[in-house]
Amino acid sequence: MRIMTIAIGALTLSSFAYAASSVTSSPQVAVGIGVDQGLSAILELNDQYRISAGNDGMSADYLFKKGKFEQPNIPVDWYVGAGGWTEWGDDDNDFGVRLPLGVDWTYKNRIHVYGQVHPELDLHDDVELQLGAAAGVSYQF
């Protein structure tokens, strides 16, 4: 199972490297803290990739669709993504895929606050559908 965790981490890092190399302007980087895989450190790249590493595991998401609400008095944007996750520290070392559905509020162009729910498909041993959630705040450089 440790090999699966290493493989997911390597794929995550390679996707960030690919994203950074394909951007013509300088990449936008944000770091923060949140609750995703337990208390987690958050890294965001180009407002499109989010990786979370916490005391319970790690996750990586690609936010492929973003939009604004039709009501002008709603100051948040919405997003849909796809990603993967793995847990460590328990006996099972679960891993799987997920579909984050969330909202993002930007404060003064630098601070982002987000919340999401994500249906998860646990692929360890037998396939199991679960529902997870995450919230966090990040600062963009």
Automatic annotation (TrEMBL):
<feature type="signal peptide">
    <location>
        <begin position="1"/>
        <end position="19"/>
    </location>
</feature>
<keyword id="KW-0732">Signal</keyword>
<protein>
    <recommendedName>
        <fullName>Outer membrane protein beta-barrel domain-containing protein</fullName>
    </recommendedName>
</protein>
